[in-house]
Design goal:
Elements (H helix, E strand, L loop, with lengths): L1 E4 L19 H4 L18 E4 L4 E4 L47 E10 L9 E4 L3 E6 L2 E6 L4 E6 L15 E9 L4 E10 L4 E9 L7 E8 L9 E10 L3 E10 L4 E10 H6 L4 E7 L5 E2 L1 E2 L6 E5 L5 E10 L6 E12 L5 E4 L2 E4 L5 E7 L2 E9 L8 E9 L10 E8 L6 E9 L5 E8 L6 E7 L12 E5 L8 E2 L5 E4 L7 E10 L2 E10 L9 E2 L3 E6 L1 E3 L4 H6 L5 E4 L1 E2 L5 E10 L9 E9 L6 E9 L4 E10 L4 E9 L11 E10 L12 E4 L2 E4 L2
Parallel strand pairs: 1-48, 18-24, 23-32
Antiparallel strand pairs: 1-42, 2-16, 3-12, 4-35, 5-6, 6-7, 7-8, 9-10, 10-11, 11-12, 13-14, 14-15, 15-16, 17-19, 19-20, 20-21, 22-23, 24-25, 25-26, 26-27, 28-29, 29-30, 30-31, 33-34, 34-35, 36-48, 37-41, 38-39, 39-47, 40-41, 41-46, 42-45, 42-47, 43-44, 43-46
């Protein structure tokens, strides 16, 4: 695929778990602090320390692999978009509040996630990799294949998943993500001992893009004493960029209330190495800072926090310089006025505590930062809640300039329906999607999704789609969430995955995992397929020739490598795309291709672009393809790309793959390359 981009109280949460683990090397590490002086002009770290090396562990030691042996069954959802009448729209100064239009949520899969563990609430989160989904809840960690088959589930206790690192018996608030850059899964949970007054963060990092197998596990001290008050960390935020990982959390005194917010910055390469990690610690006064998950290769991690009591601004954060000394900067940006709304949402006879005073989700991509939260559905008369989202153009901030609010929107349900607990995601096409919960006095909690394409009107989201509905009703006042999540599938860069809580009845909950499309990667208003393709070396596979691959959606152009003398297995193919754009209008060419290799093979691939000025192929990048699977490779060509766009708006690429002869692996086997279409994103 080619993309041309022109757009510049924890005690109530989890019951105590039995059995303390013996302290390990990670637990015994001391943190000699390096303290910094701060001033009013710049946020400085309050301390810096070095952790102990990671403890290496493997999930293969568990037997059985799934403690709950019920096989998960994938179900194709039959839910249609709800018939909604848009409620009263409040004029808040910028495009906002509109739902409707022809943007769709094409639901693809639906299967049950982890079921009730005895903890309340579940705090569900997911991480989506090329072939697997990792899910975490309070009480358990699980791995699924994308057809819904559960292949691993264990308790998140000090004697199960977190064994070996000296974890305590009160582990809570799990988060996870998949990093497409390092191709690893990350899991984080908090660990507090109120009697001993200790507070820690537990981090686990997989050794590759398959969660089954080896993990590196760290235990990191998070206890701070702002103003002399010993405090523990609660409600983590988890974000990452090309080089860094950020974890945030609210600090509460062991014998008092909220004190400050803690931010921990870590170098990603150190986490991946398994050695000791330098941790840089900041303090902030803003509550519940939510850092972003980046879908591209940006340097900075962005974040946001909302003021207490509602208001007309958000505080934005930027965390950078992870390979040297991490930095933290903030700025205040005006947004449309918002209020909290009600606290307990009715839900079919019960009610849910919606936590409306926190930002719960954020993400970033292509220089934009997105976040969403629960707000009041009417500034004056309506006690219901709605979902409010924001799109900020970050420009060159924090190096220079300031972020700009591009658009904002409200997802307000009709009648007496409440909307709350949003998770937000953005994909490689700049589609934005939100999952949330909707309920009313007569309707049980339902998992919903709403989306927008980049070409939709500013502030618009689609008519919400029902993903799944609770089979039961909760006890009134039950804590809900405390969050949901939306992630993007790295296998195609476009498919959204979401996780939400549903209610079985009483205090028993369940979770649901769903996927949906907004813009199809092989069709749709903003997509072009190749106008010409040619096999220079190799064998064309599939049903038809180049014309069919060019003209028919979901017909791909697969080329099998062939043996070429003593060179090994080779394939060479070209594809030409018409952008209908002038070269001066193109800022970035984003190339994607896939390859299927055999286990144990070593295949490399080179990408070339045709330079229309010199009339020569110009080398762009070389790749080492991962062994034994289908892999997505990506490349961004930025800067002066005008020579690579013809006067007719054509872009031509050449892809060459090679597996050499090997004395260790014997004769090379065939491998398959695929290249298909173009995506154009207007400014």
């Amino acid at each position: 695929m080619i993309e041309i981009n022109r757009r510049s109280g924890a005690a109530l949460r989890i019951g105590a778990m039995a059995c303390l683990a013996a302290l390990s090397l990670a637990a015994s590490a001391q943190r000699p602090p390096i303290r910094f002086k701060s001033n009013d002009d710049e946020i400085k770290p309050v301390l810096q320390f070095r952790t102990a090396p990671a403890v290496r562990d493997t999930t293969f030691r568990f037997f059985p692999q799934v403690v709950d042996a019920v096989r998960q069954k994938s179900v194709k959802p039959s839910h249609q978009p709800t018939e909604l009448v848009v409620g009263k729209i409040i004029d808040r100064g910028i495009p906002s509040g509109k739902i409707g239009g022809d943007t769709f949520n094409d639901t693809m899969s639906l299967f049950p996630g982890i079921g009730f563990t005895g903890s309340l609430p579940p705090d569900p989160d997911i991480a989506v990799g090329p072939d697997h989904i990792v899910q975490v809840v309070n009480g358990a960690v699980a791995f699924f294949t994308k057809d819904g088959t559960k292949v691993f589930q264990q308790p998140d206790t000090p004697t199960a998943f977190w064994s070996g690192i000296g974890a305590g018996n009160f582990i809570f608030d799990p988060k996870c993500f998949y990093d497409h850059i390092s191709q690893r899964f990350y899991i984080v949970e908090l660990d507090v001992d109120f009697g001993a007054e200790t507070s820690h963060m537990l981090i686990a990092v997989s050794d590759d893009d398959d969660p089954n197998g080896s993990w590196l596990k760290y235990k990191i001290d998070t206890k701070l004493s702002p103003g002399g008050t010993a405090s523990w960390m609660d409600y983590p935020g988890f974000g990452f960029s090309k080089d860094g990982v950020i974890v945030t959390g609210n600090l509460f005194g062991f014998s008092s209330g909220y004190t400050k917010t803690e931010v921990l910055a870590m170098n990603k390469a150190e986490l991946l190495s398994g050695g000791a990690v330098n941790v840089t610690v900041f303090e902030a006064t803003e509550f519940s800072i939510q850092p972003s998950r980046s879908i591209d290769s940006a340097d900075a991690v962005y974040g946001a926090s909302r003021p207490n009591g509602g208001g007309s601004n958000l505080t934005l954060f930027a965390f950078d310089d992870f390979t040297t000394t991490p930095t933290m900067q903030k700025t205040v940006v005006a947004v449309p006025v918002f209020t909290y709304g009600g606290y307990n949402a009715p839900a079919g006879g019960g009610s849910h505590n919606t936590l409306p005073y926190r930002l719960m989700s954020s993400c970033s991509g292509d220089g934009h930062f997105y976040t969403a939260h629960t707000t009041g559905a009417d500034l004056v008369t309506d006690g219901r809640t709605q979902v409010t989202w924001y799109d900020f153009d970050m420009g060159n901030w924090p190096a220079s300039g300031s972020p700009t609010l591009v658009q904002a929107g409200d997802v307000k349900m009709p009648g007496d329906i409440w909307a709350y607990q949003p998770g937000i995601g953005v994909n490689s096409l700049n589609d934005v999607s939100i999952s949330f919960t909707a309920s009313s006095s007569s309707e049980k909690a339902a998992a919903m999704a709403t989306s927008r394409k980049v070409t939709d009107a500013p502030g618009q989201m689609s008519t919400p789609t029902v993903l799944d509905v609770s089979p039961g009703v909760s006890v009134s006042g039950s804590r809900w969430g405390d969050y949901s999540d939306v992630e993007v599938d790295p296998a195609d860069g476009t498919t959204f995955w979401g996780v939400n809580e549903l209610m079985q009845g009483g205090f028993a909950w369940q979770t649901t995992i769903n996927s949906w499309e907004v813009s199809k990667p092989t069709g749709g208003a903003n997509l072009l397929r190749p106008i010409a393709m040619e096999v220079l070396l190799g064998t064309l596979l599939g049903g038809g020739g180049t014309a069919e691959a060019s003209e028919v959606d979901e017909t791909y152009y697969d080329v099998r490598s062939v043996k070429s003398g003593r060179s090994g297995q080779l394939s060479i193919l070209t594809a030409t795309f018409n952008t209908e754009m002038l070269g001066e209008d193109v800022r970035k060419i984003h190339a994607e291709f896939t390859a299927t290799t055999a286990f144990g093979r070593r295949v490399s691939a080179s990408l070339f672009a045709w330079n229309y000025d010199t009339e020569e192929w110009e080398y762009q990048r070389n790749y080492k393809l991962r062994s034994g699977r289908t892999s997505l490779q990506e490349y961004d060509m930025e800067g002066d790309v005008d020579p690579f766009v013809s006067d007719e708006g054509n872009i031509k690429l050449l892809l060459r793959s090679h597996e050499p002869l090997s004395r260790w692996f014997g004769g090379p086997r065939t491998h398959i390359l695929r290249i298909d279409q173009v995506v154009i994103l207007p400014s």
